[in-house]
Amino acid sequence: MAAFLQFAFERTYAMALRATIYKADLNVADTDRHYYGSHGLTVARHPSETDERMMVRLLAFAMHAQEELAFTKGLSDTDEPDLWVKDLTGEIKLWIEVGQPEERRILRACGRADEVIVYCYGGSASKIWWDGVRNKLERTRNLKVVNLPAEQSKALGKLAERTMQLNANISDGVVYFSAEKGEVTIEPEAWR
Q1: What's the maximum distance between 2 C-alpha atoms anywhere in the chain?
Q2: 8 Å CB contact between 144 and 117
């Protein structure tokens, strides 16, 4: 009986840790970069990931949309960012992190990629994080840090659905994000 209970617990625990799959049809109209395209995306949401964080990943995809941009294993793999662009030789051209990564992770990314961008969100927690790591990242030349205002990222998280039709219109650095559940205007703040 004890062996059966142990098996049942392990099976339930393993099932609980599986990613939830989301499908998104993302249409991007970026007048700043003169990029216009549609992307059919499959997004694996890690069990520890919130709707807000997943939607920030989709926002980052929209802001850098191109054929080569891809979601990675993200939270499931410490050696990969949330999104990246690799060239045909395997060189990492763009490394995108979402959240508040440790400075060692950012420094390692800056050594591996041509360009590193961190999209942080979460209000005062992001400010505290940035104040704590800013000086340690001074020597990096290929790093950009972008903050998303808390109320805007929370509103973005509320647009999440298992199947989504999303539109991102980008003009003058402002993103107008719309879905069936509503619309959100995102005004990213460049911290670095």
Answers
A1: 65
A2: yes
What sign does the dihedral 178-67-122-78 (CA atoms) show? positive
Mean pLDDT of the chain: 91
Predicted model pTM? 0.89
Question: Within 13 A of 96's CA, how many CA atoms are on the CB side?
Answer: 22
For the beta carbon of residue 76, count every other beta carbon within 10 angstroms: 13
Nearest CA to 21 out of 162, 190, 178 is that of 162
In one-letter notation, the amino acid at residue 46 is: H
* Spatial distance between the Cα atoms of 181 and 13, rounded to a whole number of angstroms: 32
Structure tokens at 9: 């617990």
List Cβ neighbours of 46 (8 Å cut-off, separation of 6 or more).
Answer: 19, 74, 75, 76
Kindly state the percentage of the chain with pLDDT values over 90: 85
CA distance readout (Å), 123 to 43, 106, 130, 148, 186: 25, 20, 11, 8, 14
Domain at 19-190, CATH from 3.30.70.100, 2.40.10.220, 3.10.640.10, 3.40.190.10: 3.10.640.10
Q: Summarize pLDDT for 144-165 with one digit per residue, the tens.
A: 999 999 999 999 999 999 999 9
Beta bridge partners of 17: none
